[in-house]
Amino acid sequence: MNKAPIISVIMPVYNAEKYLKESIESILNQTFKDFEFIIINDASTDNSENIILSYTDLRINYIKNKKNIGVAKSLNKAIQNSKGKYIARMDADDISLTNRLEIQFNYMIENQNIDICASWINHFSNENERIIKTVKSNKEIKTLLLFYNPIPHPTIFMKKEIFTKYNLSYSNTFSKAEDYELWTRAIIFCRFSIIQETLLLYRIHTSQISKNFAELQKKQIIQIKNNYMLRLFKKEDIKEILHFFKNSKKIKLNKLNWLIYLTKKYNLDIKVLIHRFKFLNKDIQSHYKNNLDLYIIDLKKILKVHHKIVIVGYGSLGQKVHNELKEQYNISHIVEQCSSNNNTNLFLKSIYSLSQDNYLFINTILSENTHVQINTKIQKKFINSEIITLYF
After folding, report:
1. Is 321:366 a contact under the CB 8 Å cutoff?
2. What is the CA radius of gyration of the chain?
3. Distance CA 229, CA 246 (A)
4. Distance from the CA of 153 to the CA of which of 65, 72, 195, 210 falls in 20 to 30 A?
């Protein structure tokens, strides 16, 4: 009796003769050898079958559909016929790097709590190429699925048992986004992770689904997102959440406390949501694009209602922060901004006139040199206070 392989690589094929040979050989030449390669021909009308049959490698398990049934049903059929402990996806026009299976297998062994992993990909065409990097953690993936699919499908490597354990399969109802739809169901039960290195070359060409069926795909993606929100969030929260997502561009800063509550309740990633919703306005957000962690820390501090808040500087940014906070929070003082021609000491004198207390200083001065100098002085004078710097 033959020993079952550790990995089952599954690859649907439909009229893929142009790139098929490269794809097949990228799997057969893997450094990890213990796998079966299930190639399912979905009633191709070109030379795909002859190319597949030209290979004599015993690890290939060739399945031919009598009629075209589509990617989702073909993938389900391949999974049902698989013998491996793990399922690895592959597309007939892409190229897996030679160590892909080895790296993903080792990653799953070292991270037993992960059910599904993927990797970065390198988009390439005749004109150019670029590496597509994406998030790593289950929480980040779970959050991003509310907006788009961050998981490169042909890099998927997953435990086969999840399909029977959680009654999962690809849905033919969402035939142009079958992977996205599956992940929005699987994330409820499974843990995901994306390996932070490139393991696959993803070919861009004119005959791909996303270009030929763009409108249908767009409609299906909208439905997938709606279904995911209804599945993920509890009934008592869903009305406010739907309103929040619909009006995200108008959300005020003082709604962040509700967003923090939401992320804790549903184990979502606060950094992803703040980045997606762009709190305050685009100008302010852009200054934090390379320091998102600082932006989050700053906003959380603003919402500590036990502080007496002092707004330092009352230009356009200071006025914006004041207007966002004045209704719900204790704005103790506003220190108006000196013009560039005035001595900074006049500004400091106004700050020093404050009584010794625990303040939350929000420094909105636009000049980097000035706000650094002001912060240093404040820290020396008000030892027990906190400072937030919103800068350009």
Report:
1. no
2. 27
3. 12
4. 65
User: Is-contact 95 201, C-beta < 8 A?
Assistant: yes
Lookup result for tokens 């636009």: 366
pLDDT band at 214 (very low <50, low <70, confident <90, very high): confident
Q: What is the pLDDT of residues 175-187, one digit of tens each?
A: 889 999 999 999 9
DSSP H helix total and E strand total for the chain? 17, 13
Helix, coil or strand: residue 116: strand
DSSP character at residue 336: P
Measured N-to-C along each axis, helices 178-186 and 71-81 cross at an angle, to the nearest 10 degrees, of: 50
Question: Which secondary-structure segment (H or E) carries 389?
Answer: strand 386-389
Is it the case that residue 92 has pLDDT exceeding 70? yes
CA distance 256 to 295: 12
pLDDT given for residue 280 in this prediction: 41
- Of 21, 33, 18, nearest in space to 9 by CA: 33
Distance (Å, whole) CA 41 – CA 74: 8
Per mean pLDDT, which range of 7-16, 80-89, 220-229, 289-298 is the poorest?
289-298
Asked whether 40 and 19 are in contact (CB, 8 A), the reply is: no
Long-range CB contact pairs, 103-106, < 8 A, 24+: 103/195, 103/197, 103/199, 104/157, 104/195, 104/199, 105/6, 105/7, 105/32, 105/157
Question: For residue 90, which of 12, 199, 168, 172 has the smallest C-alpha distance?
Answer: 12
Question: Tokens at residue 299, please?
Answer: 């906003």
Return the HEC string of 272-319.
HHHHHHCCCCHHHHHCCCCCHHHHHHHHHHHCCCCCEEEEECCCHHHH
Looking at the DSSP assignment, which residues form a beta bridge with residue 198? 120
Name the E strands within 135-249: 157-159, 192-203
pLDDT in tens, 104-144: 999 999 999 999 999 999 988 777 778 888 888 999 899 99
Contact at 8 Å (CB) between 360 and 304?
A: yes
Give CA–CA dist 329/305, Å, rounded: 6
Looking at residue 371, its amino acid is H
